[in-house]
Amino acid sequence: MMSGTSMAAPHVAGVAALIKQRNPSWSPSMIASAMATTAFTYDNGGEPIMAHSQDIYSLNRSTPFDHGAGLVNPTRAIDPGLVFISGFEDYMSFLCSLPNTDPEIIKTAIGEQCSHSFQAPSDLNIPSLTISALNGKQSVRRTVKNVADTAETYVCAVVPPNGVAVELNPPWFTIAPEGTQDLEVILEVTQVQDSFSFGEIVLTGNMKHIVRIPLSVLPASMPEI
């Protein structure tokens, strides 16, 4: 109520309804993934929404913490190619893996016990990746599902955040309809920064699907020698 959402909330809700009408079996996480990974990264005037240079960010440009994945693209969101799926158990594992979390508080609030937790909160299978303190080197996993009607081959590319080297395995893959593919993202600090740096992973398919995943990383310390 204090900050408001202007017309963003009804617009996004309307797009979500369109996606659900076209894909009745999709879960909320699939719909949210479709909107995020297919968003425009340039505004109507051709200005970049998502810049990658720290120098550009210093000129009072917004960051992914402000604009998210970009501007919603309803046409592409209906047919995103790949989606990231998370369910109740995944979010429970996320909550239970947060630092300094009291399992009893989670049980009281949600009614479920912490039976499992991720190695790190960043392992939650969502279409973005944030690491609040990258110390040396860390591996993060994601799983995508092909919701297209045909098999597709994707090539992986990375625009790394400043001070971070990013490796994606596998660098390319072919995925069948309704098939899944595990991805390993390896991040390593190359230069310590005093603030978050931003980049993105881009998966480009031979059937013209483009899947973008924002990266937000604070490189805290160099790898041990």
Task: Please provide a written account of the structure.
There is one protein chain. The protein is built from 7 helices and 9 strands, in the order αααααβααββββββββ. The chain folds into 2 domains: 8-86 and 125-221, Immunoglobulin-like; 87-123, no CATH class. A hairpin with a 4-residue loop joins strand 8 and strand 9 (210-221). By secondary structure, the chain is of the alpha+beta class. Residues 51-59 have low confidence and may be disordered. The termini are far apart. 25% of the residues lie in helices and 31% in strands. The longest helix has 15 residues, at 8-22. It has helices at residues 8-22, 28-37, 54-57, 64-67, 74-78, 88-97, 103-110; strands at residues 82-84, 129-135, 137-146, 152-159, 164-169, 172-175, 180-189, 197-205, 210-221. The strands form 2 sheets. The protein has a 5-stranded mixed beta sheet, with no helix packed on it. Strands 1-3-7-5 form a 4-stranded antiparallel beta sheet. Keywords: Hydrolase, Protease, Serine protease, Signal. It holds the Pfam family Peptidase_S8.
